[in-house]
Amino acid sequence: MRSTSNPAFRNLPQGGYAGFQPQAQGYQQGPEYIGYSAPVTNERPMTVDDVVTKTAATLGVGLVTGIITAIATVSQSINPFGPMIGGLIVGLVLSLVIIFRRKAPSPALVLTYAAAEGVFLGAITGVLERYVPGIGLQAIMGTGLVFITMLIVYKTGAVKVTPRLTKWIIGATGAAAGLLLINLLLSWMGIQTGLRGSGPLGIVISLVIIGIAAFNFLLDFDQADQMIRSGTPAKWAWYVAFGLMATLVWLYFEILRLLWILQSSD
């Protein structure tokens, strides 16, 4: 299984589930593949339907909690600071638990993570909606369009997920994360670099990050596809749903931020 920049897929079980052996299926054995040595299991293998239904449920929970929180924030019936910080912390803690535990995540854990992220993004969206009505819907549509576009790109083979492309995406993701971390630390020291500002540089950086997040979908889709082909147990479909949700949260946040920069300056 190829590497991925999404930490959600890095602790997946590596094994010949359901008697699967890469040699028998004609898969090339090279440095970009991980050997399969886990014992055979009698658990039902994962299917495309498992991935679709679990992902839909996860996204649905996040969308519902996000919309409710955004509406409550716009109407000023709640203080957005609490949900924003609480959702961020709960989402971060749950993501670490899901990533580093050595067994398949429970549906409750993944759905709670989705709800927390929905509350976090909903609070931010609600605040911005007060100043730029409709920005939330625009961000949702933009995120959905990017997701569908990258799925089509992957399914049609317009862009092949090769080891070279995988390394490029992982490197770009790491570089972006490092750059943003350094910028955050400098901002705490009172040094403004303009990387996350509302000027031309800030807009370019946002577009680049959105592009990197979009290409991460290709790695997510490829990982899910390989898990299905290798006969990974169906319970791990929740892990796929979590990974896709994490990328969607990142992408939505960046698109929302870019829309705010572009429209608040009008």
From TrEMBL:
PANTHER family recorded: CONSERVED TRANSMEMBRANE PROTEIN-RELATED (PTHR41282:SF1)
Sequence intervals crossing the membrane: 56-75, 81-100, 107-128, 134-153, 165-189, 201-219, 239-262
Superkingdom of the source species: Bacteria
Q: Does the keyword Membrane apply?
A: yes
Would the keyword Zinc turn up in this protein's UniProt record?
Answer: no
Protein name in UniProt: Putative YccA/Bax inhibitor family protein
Q: Which residues form a coiled coil?
A: none
A Pfam family that the UniProt record links to this protein: BaxI_1
Record lineage: Bacteria, Bacillati, Actinomycetota, Actinomycetes, Pseudonocardiales
UniProt keyword terms in alphabetical order: Membrane, Transmembrane, Transmembrane helix
